[in-house]
Amino acid sequence: MKDFSQYSDTDLILKYKETDDNTIVGHLFEKYTHLVFGVCMKYLQDEDEAKDALMQIFEKLLVDLKKHEITQFKGWLHMVAKNHCLMQLRSDKALQGKQQELKKDFKSVVESGYELHLNSVQEKEQQLTQLEEAIKKLNEEQKLCIDLFYLKEKSYQEIVELTGFSLNSVKSNIQNGKRNIKIHITGKA
Length: 189
Fold this sequence. Notes:
The protein is 80% helix and 0% strand. By secondary structure, it is mostly helical. The chain is elongated, with a radius of gyration of 23 Å.
């Protein structure tokens, strides 16, 4: 089955499900690259981001083609590409929001019980050390969620997938972790 052009998309998908032959998905990739790239450019409006999204979408196909019953591959692929781009745009907005929240939270932590006037490098280092100590004192779940959310900039959903925690548990760990950090830092001030 090396001459894929004689088969319909549906036949190729069925054959891929049977054989797990990635070259079949590679053929579909080549056939529809222009379509997916066009959708990605329309939504992301950046060539490099569109290329990255294109690769992520086709990597996703290796899994999704096995899970879904697809009768109109081209239309289905268009929707997959569109949804991927919309999720990426939402994620980018969420990341910007998280960065703003982190700046605001850090400022409020520093201002609540601290003098914001840092006169020396030594004072700055002392405050960063206190922040590190506060994070170390968190329980493992809080520490992991705080690290993934603020330092690794993961979304709630990504943290759920990485840790296996429920969404409510992730939110609770982040909220409680922030509160415990504030308590630890302001208690030392």
